[in-house]
């Protein structure tokens, strides 16, 4: 089983990204997927967690993801020991940051950084970083294809925002692919 933990703030769309990934792998790749949020105080800007599990067989575990293969951080200010806790040795940390990946390295996992906020502002005109971070994760991990992610966007997001989200997904994907 592959497990992903998403760290974001209310309003950034961490759960939407978790859900888009789960939908993409279940519909396109024939895998079982589970995506769910964990909220503290439900308000915009409060820290939130979301989780995605991907498996070749049915998933019965409904608990939070403690040990994970990937950690995605939608807001760099959330980064700290609690964020990387449980990230498996050899796993991948994807951080929305202007900083170089080396500033987050040294813990036994690979680090990828991308300025998803800038991409979001440029294309979406809003600092909603979920879809570019999904694109970065896909480029770093190969968990599913761009086509699967596009189909997931088409079926899960409102028609008014689909094309811009596919554009920001591709731009983030290409940016990370150039680095890895």
From TrEMBL:
Keywords: Oxidoreductase
Domain Pyruvate/ketoisovalerate oxidoreductase catalytic positions: 10-174
Matching InterPro entries: Oxidoreductase_gamma_subunit, PorC_KorC, Pyrv/ketoisovalerate_OxRed_cat, Pyrv_flavodox_OxRed_cen
Stretches of the chain forming a coiled coil according to its record: none
Protein name (record): 2-oxoacid:acceptor oxidoreductase family protein
